[in-house]
User: Fold these one by one.
Assistant:
Number 1:
Amino acid sequence: MDIKTPVIILNVKAYRESSGAKDLELAKICKAVMDETGVSIVYCPQQVDLAWVAREVAIPCLAQHADPYSPGSRTGSSVLESIKDAGAVGTLVNHSEHRMLVSDISEIIQKAQTLDLFTVVCTNNTPVSKAVAELMPSSIAIEPPDLIGSGIPVSKADPDIVSNSVNAVKNINEDIVVLCGAGISTGEDVKAAIELGAEGVLLASGVVKARDPKRVLEDLATGI
Ligand code: G3P
């Protein structure tokens, strides 16, 4: 499974502003902006809403996390087969708010390949981006944890971490899509990220906590 790049990936996390009917509403807004602008947008609903949102809204959905287990007696787990059955096109992996062991990251990537699921592995610095690239994920999203939720865009606060990660990953495999995230909230932030070599952005609070999410998304799309 591929995702059209450049891309805006909205991760709604577990905010009150993105729960239940509000999750569905945000997905519909993303779909409307995608149709209006032609810009590729991918949606990461709350895990409990994944199947419902993926069924109700014609927008590519990613799970926010996947567990490295086979189907079976794994109460409360999100196994890749069920994520696929729910209608997702892939999953985030190792988000800084849901860190994983390298062995588990590798397990998820390999299994996702057999299920034709897209993997976006989140990393916190360039050495980790380089190490994860060796595992051949579909995509790597560099996100310095200290900037997450700060409203200070990584593309401006720490441009080197973006360009260095792009170069390190592409030196290992040109096909790995490199994204960046943390503090992204305007079209200008997106444009700066792409000028640094990123093929898209991963964001959350700039849209989820906005008074007018649609207007923010339309502005973000101008940066693509
Ligand atoms: O998954 C993206 C997220 O960690 C970035 O958060 O709120 O800085 O856009 P935010």
Number 2:
Amino acid sequence: MSGLGISAPRLLLRKLHQVMAGHGDAEQRLNEIVRLIASNMIAEVCSCYLRRAGDVLELYATEGLKKNSVHQTRLRLGEGLVGDIAARARPLNLSDAQSHPQFAYRPETGEEEYHSLLGTPILRGGRVIGVLVVQNRTRRVYTDEEVEALQTVAMVVAELVSSEEMVAATEFSDTAGNATLPHHVSGKVLAEGLAVGYALLHEPRIEVLRTISEDRAKELNRLNSAVSALQSSVDKLLLATNTMLTDESKDIFEAYKMFAHDKGWLKKLHDAVATGLTVEAAIKRVQDDTRARMKEINDPYLRERLSELDDLANRLYMHLDGRVQIDRRNLTKDTVVIAANMGAAELLDYDRRHLKAVILEAGTRASHVAIVARALGVPVVGQCASIRENVEQGDFVLVDAEHGQVFLRPGEDVQEAFSRSQNQRAQRQAKYAALRDKPNISKDNVTLSLNVNAGLLLDIDHFPEFGADGIGLFRTELQFMVRSQMPKVDEQTSLYARVLDKMEGKPVIFRTLDIGGDKMLPYLKTKTEENPALGWRAIRIGLDRPALLRSQLRALVRAAAGRDLSLMFPMIAEVPEFLEAKAILNKEVDRAKQKPGGAPLNVKVGTMIEVPSIVWQLPQLLTEVDFISVGSNDLMQFFFAVDRGNPKISERYDTLSPTLLTLFRNIAEQCEKANKPFSICGDIAGRPLEAMALLGLGYRNFSMSSEALGRVKEMVLSADISKLENYVRNLCNSRDHSVRDQLRSFARDHSIII
Ligand code: PEP
Ligand code: MG
């Protein structure tokens, strides 16, 4: 076998292109391909194994091995050298294959004569769909160029095997890049619901629709323009952001810049296009190579640098003209977005008519993307490990965000079961809808206030359908997050006025801007913080940038002229913070009194209880506020010192832990003593069992996602609070990790529907 330069693979690619464009059924073409590879690479054997259901690699075509072993020789993933290449997803280059400990002899192939072996995985969408092998009699080591050439050829084979025409051909229907095999992933429910749609990868992936180029000169031009665009965008980014970057992120951008101009990287791309690959295939080829190198490297610094190269390949792809572009704001079919993780603002970027569900590899219930999704009624399943590796753009997906199940490319039986679940859910929703106009009165005649959390105009439009008493938490920051610039006072005023108009006198509690942490505004420059949840956020920003807080308060006061206004401040940690914020509000109210529009009739001002320190200053706070609202998401985060957005620990402590219940009781007790209204608006208010415990602790006012209202109402109507009170308060003395089981038993014994 001669060392292969650029010209040899080019020739081979051209011939493969002819085969691809030619006639013949799937198997004939594959046979032709292995024959071509063997003769061009001067190998005695070339074989193609494809992955079938049950993780089996089956010999589909061979030049050189005994023909009757085709469809007979099968290896499990990890078994033999072929299985090893597939399992590790990387090439194997052996001068004496038979002495390798993994070698598994298959007598039907007659391969005992061949000593050297070079094999490479056939990859599609990052998944191994087969293995391509060449073998020679002599004990020889294949050169790096030969390894690369075989990898390039494997991309062409991948294209052939996954092409629609081949998928349609029965003989390939159950290989087809595994893309036709059903796949099931379990995760955590972050926003309830059931949905059906087609997969859309949030982080764009390099899509190789064509591997071999038709016109090399044109492809080289495409590459050159994409590279120039990438280089200037990285340079610009660095210039524009230089002043606001931390040293660490500056390093990363510098590394980007270095790589974007790196001659070695660019040469590899050029060489790959020069051999006859399309730019997409060339980028993919070079990226696969980087990934393979990353797997071999243990040094964390080098790995990090390589991962930047990997990312740069994605960025280069983004600059390619003629690339398949998806317009998130104008989706054309029902879509299930799949991402590693996502910010709330990014979610709001999607076309809401067609966004049916979101699946995340990370995420927790308390993360803001989940909160926004619940507000939008978009089901979310989070913590779905490695889902991105198993999904292809456009896959049909069923999302069961009631049980945390995701089904990719489901079979008919699963689809039928799913549609039964959809019917059941519809029945449940109908049952909740029938409860809508019933008053919120417990079995023992205690009247409760059940409210919804809102933040989007959509919530307000649908408010009458919820059957809620009011809006217990209006997250004003969502309106800031959906814009590309800070909304002006007038814009804010008309927005808040619209909310009040639509609510027709029903109570609304506006919360002033709660940004920072995981809710960033693209136009508000902030430094990257080591601990954003403990950082410059919420009222801290408001007090440090009083103009920002003042403009919002001015807008709220104006919008409520001549009617009632209720508002609260987030993240108050000590009384002076509240007093400072209230002083700004009072000034605005006084100012409005002098203006033609006038001031609100009645202003009620409160705070969220989210930082544990304020609980110890409640007696002093309660003399100053009109009400408080417990933000259990943050309160729990700070109480247990667990990052609410970190799935690894966010469920380490239970929401029904006796220590947390004791804290809730303590807050309630202090408010009762001071005769100040109190409510709870964190996620737990929307969970029937948790809400039941809170009833027992004295809470009567709840605010939750609209989707949760029906089930909480059902629980409330079936509960006898007098019986609950003693029971739950006693549980506070428990030494257990959680009193969930005891509460469940209580509900069962007392026929409370949870
Ligand atoms: C909370 O912290 O409980 C809360 C309601 O606020 P957010 O979830 O918006 O931080
Ligand atoms: Mg909060």
